[in-house]
């Protein structure tokens, strides 16, 4: 009897050889590349987490520093306000003292003037001047010094404010004539200019005089003082004008109006209307009725001659 054939084993299905301790063999190069690619994202995530933690710590420290700066600023602002209030109170202290004194003085004077035996009225001027000096002293304690201006001082545009002019001699031209209000300065800075009246020479004051003359002429014309116009002057009412030429015309026109009736009658009688003769005179030439139109004046003259006879 023949023996059975031996099984054929291909190299693909042959079991891999093992070591003596039955441990698997080391992986090949393909398996090592896959493990390295899987660990790289993990390392990147760890690096990002570390950077984010550092950034968070930096922001926390900056926030603490900003909060500390805000506290310092608030404290400095409060101290500044206290210092300013203290300085203002220190500056106002002498002003208050002077105002207290002025208040007491005014109160005493008011009581004296309200009493049964008031002081003389002549004391009012010096009293008010003393009060003005007291107020100027109070202003001086605040830094506002009064600028004294007297009549006769030269006009200074930097310190004076002109409120008007007054005619003066040529020698006093450009000087202060009257002081209306004092000025005040603080060091080199002008707080308020003094209000003054400035003198101007008579030659520069001519426009005002010319204006007055013009107003007088207008008033004279309105009143008809010269009588040379036709609005009711003596000469125009009497003679019709300065040369009297208009008087005859006005008289003739008045006689024409008054002698219309007489002219009609007389012109008819003298012109031969009753005798059958043709009328003569200017009236006949113009073709108008006697005593009217252009023939009125001759008819009137004839009527007057007849009345005089």
TrEMBL record:
It comes from the Bacteria. InterPro entries: GrpE, GrpE_head. GO terms for molecular function: adenyl-nucleotide exchange factor activity; protein homodimerization activity; protein-folding chaperone binding. Residues 1-43, 150-171, 202-309 are annotated as: Disordered. The keyword S-adenosyl-L-methionine does not apply. Residues 278-289 have a biased composition (Low complexity). This is Nucleotide exchange factor GrpE. It comes from Sphaerisporangium album. The lineage of its organism: Bacteria, Bacillati, Actinomycetota, Actinomycetes, Streptosporangiales.
